[in-house]
Write a structure and sequence with these properties.
By secondary structure, the chain is of the alpha+beta class. Helix content is 36%, strand content 30%. The protein has 4 helices and 7 strands. It has helices spanning 5-21, 30-43, 95-112, 118-128, and strands at 52-56, 60-66, 69-75, 82-89, 138-144, 147-154, 158-164. Strands 1-2-3-4-7-6-5 form a 7-stranded antiparallel β-sheet, with helices on one face. Helix 2 packs across helix 3.
């Protein structure tokens, strides 16, 4: 899609306003994160809906999707916005568990970049090393929309995907 200079200006202005408003957070509450995740999960055709959500001591988020995938995150107690979130996945050797982990990473990336073109998200997944999984020991990070997306993978630990400011 080709954007006019005015459309690009408006997009950059919205991005700047978003950064100023949410400069110390990810810009989403737990409820907003859950709503976006579940909507995208349906769009991806997956069964990775967030249901088992726990908030511990008002500032620690704990989510279990299934026996192989879970999240932990911090919530700013003053604003109720997520400060960071980390997904941990460990496959059981089946293609389905591996596909669920990769889908979870793609969904999480989309939650925070849903206003970007699909090509931007695809490039991000490629830059993180997720598209070419020849290397089983990954430790990569990218910055997109002022957020740091980090992917770590090892045979011993599994996969960790985090989003932070």
């Amino acid at each position: 899609m080709v954007h006019t200079p005015f459309q690009l200006y408006i997009k950059e202005l919205r991005h700047y306003q978003h950064l100023k408003t949410y400069e110390s957070s990810l810009g989403l509450t737990v409820e907003e994160f859950t709503e976006k995740w579940n909507k995208l999960s349906i769009g991806y055709g997956s069964n990775l809906e967030l249901k088992d959500i726990q908030i511990i001591e008002n500032n620690i988020l704990n989510i279990k999707i299934n026996k192989n995938i879970g999240f932990i995150g911090n919530i700013d107690p003053d604003s109720n916005y997520l400060s960071n979130i980390n997904m941990i996945g460990s496959g059981d050797g089946t293609p389905k568990s591996g596909a669920n982990i990769i889908s979870s990473i793609a969904i999480m990336l989309s939650v925070f970049t849903d206003d970007e073109e699909v090509d931007v998200r695809n490039k991000a997944l490629h830059d993180l090393g997720l598209i070419d999984l020849e290397n089983t020991d990954l430790n990569t990070s990218i910055i997109l929309k002022g957020l740091k997306f980090s992917l770590r993978m090892s045979k011993e630990i599994g996969i960790s995907f985090s989003v932070s400011r």
